[in-house]
Amino acid sequence: MAVGTVLITGGTGYIGSFTSLALLQNGYEVVIVDSLYNSSEVALDRIELICGKRPTFHKADLTNEAELDKIFAAHPTIDSVIHFAALKAVGESSEIPLEYYRVNVGGTVSLLSSMKKNDVSNIVFSSSATVYGDATRFENMIPIPEHCPIGPTNPYGQTKAMVERIIEDFITAQRQNLKKAGKPFEQWNGANLRYFNPCGAHPSGLMGEDPQGVPYNLLPLLGKVATGDRPKLKVFGDDYSSRDGTAIRDYIHVVDLARGHLVALNYLREHKPGVKAWNLGSGRGSTVFEIIKAFSKVVGKDLPYDVEPRRQGDVLDLTANPTRANKELNWKTELTMEKACEDLWRWVSNNPKGYRQEPPAELLDAVKAKTS
């Protein structure tokens, strides 16, 4: 008997697919909704290979509320949503802001409206540390705690901050309206998970990040340089006031991050807290140059890079203070940035075309031996 049925928006994407896997491995039924705009349906095959269970899949656009209504109607046991579906590139968001607001904010409004109609009352939202903006503008806010004032510096961060507020307002209103009417209200809950820099891949080498276009994040770009798909990495800014002049980020292994969504969902279902925000990070900051060095070490050769001017909207330091999640969710990162580099290299070196190729036979055999 399943623990519950969860709808995962953006569930074939990088973090969505790993979270789908974690939920299936922990007794949940999973229904995925994804437009496949920046992901591949092959992720479903890899999830099934690893855990022996396959999520139900619907190809749909989140901005189409009528489609969502049909999906909820087809799966009346859904009681919770984990919401990933969004456009997610900081740089691109400054070039096409309207599209980011349309998809990220508009899609969420459609989703919440459909949840309300179908009485689906828990939502875990994939937010981002970008909601904090430049936390160095305040004293004693690095590493960043959840009470750090929100102040995004780019349209992508603005959409995440807006969606957090929309979820907070929506859940609060649902609880107040039901309470006034003398009806049960505690079932309406939301978690805003502000996470830092996801990285790595599945240790089997069968699942990882597979962006459809040019990746925007540091480690996937390094992977492309290591496999020869790109000539060199661009480092944006070496004049920050850090230990080596490059920006500092908190890298979190995607397997740890997926587990964070699982424990946050369990917390909502068990404790019914209303709306809460949690940072999901390691609390350990690494500079861009330190990441290049760590990944080069795993690959076994120095990876070339050029230094370019800083990008608009980038900030010096995004390191998490994860104390609240450590205490309340009993969650902390278990896998290091170095382990993430190893797992990422296993993924990209064995699957240079990502999900657009068959995985090597020896990786498949190793997984089948484990699951048989």
Secondary-structure blueprint:
Blueprint: E1 5-9, H1 14-25, E2 29-34, H2 42-51, E3 56-59, H3 65-74, E4 78-83, H4 90-95, H5 97-117, E5 122-128, H6 155-180, E6 189-195, E7 197-199, H7 218-226, E8 233-236, E9 248-253, H8 254-271, E10 275-280, E11 285-287, H9 288-299, E12 305-308, E13 317-318, H10 323-328, H11 337-350, H12 361-371
Parallel strand pairs: 1-2, 1-4, 2-3, 4-5, 5-6, 6-10, 7-9, 8-12, 9-13
Antiparallel strand pairs: 9-11
Helix pairs in contact: 1-2, 1-8, 3-5, 5-6, 7-9, 7-11, 9-11
Keywords for this entry:
372 residues; alpha/beta; Rossmann fold; 7-stranded parallel β-sheet; 4-stranded mixed β-sheet; 17% strand; globular; Epimerase_deHydtase
